Amino acid sequence: MPKTVNLIVVGAFLLMAGCASSSAVVTYHLLHPVAAPVEAGHWDPSTYVVVGPVELPSYLDRPQMVSRRSDHTLSVNEYQRWAEPLDEGIARTVAENLSQLTGGEKMFLYPFDAPKASATMQVFMDVVRFDTDEAGKAVLDVRWGLKNGKRETLLTRHTSLSGVVDGEDQPARARALSRLVAEFSRDVARTLVNPE
């Protein structure tokens, strides 16, 4: 009989341990637009801008937030996640930033078919790196370009940005990445206004 009691007690402890570990709270994060109001330069308000597609490396194509360790390995945080697919979050944030920077209201997410005979620009992105590291550095490295309404590539660019994470928690990391997306959006806005 004591052996049966011991098994029941051990089973109860294992069950409680399992419940405790599964009760960890998952926190969801969003990228936020942080671009300043309208930049100098001529902007045709009738222009449609389609933002996307955004291509991600496989290590980022997941809901969990990813950070780099100093030994070039990755840390995937199971309990800190993006609230939306990261490619969609980047496209949405760039579109919102561009709207603020240019004063343009016709910013749409890919796929979107603009009305025929309208002036259209498409911003496409291939993200090489978008993460933070243990030293408190945030990095955005992206190859991008513009297409016209005929889907002809007008230009391609490579932008590499870095910034400081102003804190050690995950919200600080999300804020730092949002600031980099805003800085990237300013580069795109300047190019949209003067694509030469």
Q: What would you give as the CATH superfamily?
A: ABC-type transport auxiliary lipoprotein component
Q: What is the general shape? A: elongated
CATH topology: Rossmann fold
Q: Count of helices?
A: 3
CATH top level is Alpha Beta
Strand segment count: 8
Indicate the radius of gyration in whole angstroms. Answer: 22 Å
Question: In total, how many domains does the architecture comprise?
Answer: 1
What's the mean pLDDT score? 88
How far is the first residue's CA from the last residue's CA? 86 Å
Class by helix and strand content? Answer: alpha/beta
Pfam family, one: ABC_trans_aux
Domain ABC-type transport auxiliary lipoprotein component: 29-189
Keywords: Lipoprotein, Signal
InterPro entries: ABC_trans_aux
